[in-house]
Amino acid sequence: MSSQHRRFAELVAWASNSLGADALSVNVVRATHGVAPTNVALNADRLATVLYTVAAKYLSHHGLMESNDLWSTVGELQQAVRNIAPEPIGSCLPLISVASRNHIEEIWSAFSAEDSELFSDARTVGYAYQYFRLPSRKQAQKNAQSADKQMDTEQLAAFTQLYTPYWVVDFLLQNTLLPQLSPDLRARLANHWLIENAPNEFSRTTSDITVLDPACGAGHFLHDAFSNLVECHKLTGETSQQSARRAITQIHGADIDVIALHAAALTLLIKFKQTCGEFPREPWSCLTVVDADALGSLSRSLAKDHPLNQSYSVIVTNPPYIGRRLITRELKTALKQEYPGSAHDLAAPFVVRALEQLQPGGRLGFITQASLLSLPSFQSLREDLLEHDSLKVVVDLGTGVFPLQAGDKVNSVLLVAEAPVPPKNGGTLVRNGSSAQAVFVDLSQLEDKEDSLRLICRAPDRSAESAVFIRDQSEFQRTPFSAFHYKCPPPIQELLLSPQTLESIADVRQGLATTDNQRFLRYMWEVDPKEIGTTWFPYVKGAGSERWTSPVLNVVNFADNGREIKETVANKYPYLNGKTAWVVKNEQYYFRAGLCFSFVSTEQFCARILPAGCIFDVAASALFPAGDSSDFLLAYLNSTLIRSICKLLNPTINMQVGDVKRVPLLSFNAESKHALAQLARACVDAKARLDSFTQPHFRLTDSFPLATTLNSDDPESSFNRLSSQIVDLNDRLNTYEQNIDQIMLQQCMEALSPSKSDRASILRWLSDCDYPPVAHPAKLMSKAQVAEFAVFQAVTKQILVSKDGPVQSIELGFSQPSVKWAEENLGTSLSSFLTKRLPTVASKVFKGKLPAWFDATVVSRQLDLSTSDGRR
Question: H or E element: which one contains 269?
Fold first, then answer.
């Protein structure tokens, strides 16, 4: 499908760029009909030419062109849309000018036999509009990166214009509409996407079904809803004409994009024509243009008889994927007032509003962001859904769902939920079927999501499929943030509720925020060593995914007990009334040994040692265990089990102090605790030795391992031994971590006493959560990099030896074979390397902040490379 879409997009781009009609501002159309204007200035004649040629091609493909005259067919289509669509939708695109007649023929001729499958589906009209608007979408994406990120209506429509793939539309409609029909009727309809987990105890007649898409775009969902309803009516004995006329009154779509609605009207028109062989005779009321600045489809204050103020049995949509920072101030304010618990983006309020509009027993089907499943910002929405409605189906799709949008890192999820049904004997609404259970499907790591989901839907026993999880939704009411951790085994969910947490055996504290790092922080090599410990103090910052240990390279100006920092804080935040401890936090814990963890880590939670004598940063908050349990806790926290649990506690890349406090504690016997502590010390030692090969060396007491190792009479053998040593250290570190995981798993099983099936689910969950083995940067160094850093270390060491006096010449101290080996792997002479490349290497190693005693340019000029005693 992607190759077809790519070719179609190219054809549309060619057509839109090759036509020469003048641009027409859509503002004129919108203003004429009292609709808020936009900034769009689309070439409307060009767009109309593309859309109506595609529509005519669809009619031709299905043998529905009543005339061989293409121009007459296009004119007939344009007039028909104006007859059926309400204003301003019907006339928002102009009648195609006579001058464009030849262009219609050109576009028609550009489509070949290989494109025939595109025109088997009327929704191709919608994709033609999406691809026509690709330049506008790219511009909106570019604008989103600018300083002024707020979007007007037009930019919002372009930015969020990702129309739903056909198979997603089919899946959501079959799982929302079909379950509400009688079993007999449902069995007679195409139901290959149905993944219902239990029979419904409630059903409606076909005539009682009503469908809403509150963000319908070009009408993909409306098209399928119309088709499904037509088939239902025909199965109950109505003619095609009767079925089409009735079905069109049972669907409704709304959008902020008036031209998208015009494309939706055209799509429904040609589908109607295919269904009953004629164009409709009566105007339609199934499409509504809304004003984005007044909440649009999300408004709760519309007129009583407004289509968006009615209840529906099916609500399906692909809502906008956009956060608060990109929408207008007016819309932000309105969202906060109307949807206070879900105002962080536009998608969440659409779900909330849809749940409100569902009829008893009605269903919603959304494709939206997968962050809805677990992010804390969606907690209010999840709690509301769990309390009042029933989860039915959730398909975790991951990325790559939308055609031609591989660059968009959109993680998508399909969500089907059901409103409570009226009880048979009256009274309070109740949940339908086997109330608590929902089907979760994990396709996030699969490439062919469409075929994978189709196979699961057809499987005779879906619960046996490895990607399928059946969960009681009451489980999620007890998880942190009510997150839908569907892959997490029930015993692990119970463990999260344990009263024994990390907070009971360790103080977890946030670190210092200087408020001005540029002023108060330096690298150690930037300051006078004599001032370290008096003015400048070792400072531990966040280290991303580093665990076990990490070099301490920074210092902070904390002279006079942090006087300057505290004065700055007091001046910057006068409302604190001098209470600087709100920012200079937990001062009583400074300089104490403990553990620390990074606030930001793409690999989730990672713990490392906090050496004594250091101050810790807000991005490297710390733990101070009671007694001598630091080594044990270091192993415990870096195990796959606990790191995976941390991901449940906070699924974002930002691990907070409060999250770490809630980490559950398992019971351990003395032997296991001792073994974990020993393994932690071994991990720290291996990691520190690996770090020594890549970290900056700026003190004479440093080891300079590369320069020392390669200065030999057989540097190739020395390099091989060095490589073997690094690989061995890396492998040992991985082995230690595996041993930790084995002990943790054993203790977990003993503590939880899971059933056989739960034990299998725990092992499966841990396998899915497993982190890749350590691949330290030292292991990845090439010969050229080793030669580069060996020479650099030798230069640095000699400068340090001579730095207190004038530098006249410096001997590298390399043997003749070492010089030859270095030059071969550097690809240049040492003199050339020192002159041309050493400054770049120095800047890289010292992170762009060269020590005062190391000016790489000066050094390269002063190095004496003359031969002395067989050395250079």
Answer: helix 258-276
